[in-house]
């Protein structure tokens, strides 16, 4: 049997609901099959056809629903069909993400979907040196994935030209809002051509996001899949009512179960994440902390250890957890109840991904019941209460043995001293400046 025949036999058979039905380039579909993707997720099925028609898009989709491919595949489809005329590749697609981890994950997805490396994708973010990023940009880039702070720095240095961007994606816009990046987003969009296609993705759509969309988008198609109440359906959600001093004892009791193979534990602050990780390690649990005061190298190593199973428990703050895409996290534990109910949805979305089952456990102190009530109103369901096991001891959390690493440069820090501070398609979509 010939090699080509063997490949043909091992390739998944086209599905009546497969990617072929969306009108994507055959080369892209072939790559998706080699990656094991045979059918689009709901957000992909609803968003991709409109994106292929060069329509602006306002999409409401939770993490873990396949939303990265929902914007990456139409962008790659367009780039594969229309080769740039200039010798040096201009930036034709720009994707903004709120965190370094998410930006890196998006760039990795673009590269994995690209047939035979025909499209160049680079990622830029803070916390690391500029030189390698500048070198990559000077070679020419088709798709640039960036965090707002580092992109503005490179623009001020004259290393980024956005004048030929045709497609602009704002991913996790609600998290951009939470992190205070919207002024940066406005500055960046002023450097983009008015004639462009804009795709805005957000897990939630508060008033500020709707206002931003009205300024960024021109006659957008609205797509809303997996609303908050249904997104959490594959996840078993429970809450323990336990006073603060006994939370650590209860957490250790829960982690003693072999049913929890890989857990993501959320705390409200960086300092508490460090203390909790050290406390768990002291008790024999393989644990590590990840947050914004860790260097980029430390964060990469910690996340890789978690992915490979060397670290069983990852203790994270909400900002650092954006971009943690580990498919087999079986349990999410809210050691602290978040102040914002939408944050609970983002946290729980780290388990039960792509329709798989998962478990979300919350440890609620007497001073956190109001936040829990707000969460239940948002998700429109009562979270099951579990009885706290008797005999749970109050255990004091460890004090950090060393000062946390200083952040190289926080993306939200105010910058000072910077410089001026063959399908017929039409991308004539006009978007007003923000």
Written overview of the protein:
The protein is α/β, with parallel strands linked by helices. The protein has two domains: 3-226, Rossmann fold (3-Layer(aba) Sandwich); 229-386, Rossmann fold (3-Layer(aba) Sandwich). It is 37% helix and 15% strand. It is built from 17 helices and 14 strands. It has helices at 3-10, 26-34, 42-52, 67-81, 100-113, 131-139, 148-156, 173-178, 182-190, 207-216, 228-231, 247-255, 270-282, 296-307, 318-321, 341-348, 369-379, and strands at residues 57-60, 93-96, 121-124, 143-146, 167-170, 197-202, 221-224, 235-241, 263-266, 287-290, 313-316, 331-334, 358-364, 384-386. The strands form two sheets. A seven-stranded parallel beta sheet has the order 3-4-2-5-6-1-7, with helices on both faces. The chain has a seven-stranded parallel beta sheet with strand order 10-11-9-12-13-8-14, sandwiched between helices. α6 links the parallel β3 and β4. α7 (148-156) crosses α9 (182-190). The protein is globular. It starts with a helix and ends in a 48-residue tail after the last strand. Mean pLDDT is 84; it is low at 1-14, 402-424 and 428-434.
Describe the SSE topology.
Blueprint: H1 3-10, H2 26-34, H3 42-52, E1 57-60, H4 67-81, E2 93-96, H5 100-113, E3 121-124, H6 131-139, E4 143-146, H7 148-156, E5 167-170, H8 173-178, H9 182-190, E6 197-202, H10 207-216, E7 221-224, H11 228-231, E8 235-241, H12 247-255, E9 263-266, H13 270-282, E10 287-290, H14 296-307, E11 313-316, H15 318-321, E12 331-334, H16 341-348, E13 358-364, H17 369-379, E14 384-386
Parallel strand pairs: 1-6, 1-7, 2-4, 2-5, 3-4, 5-6, 8-13, 8-14, 9-11, 9-12, 10-11, 12-13
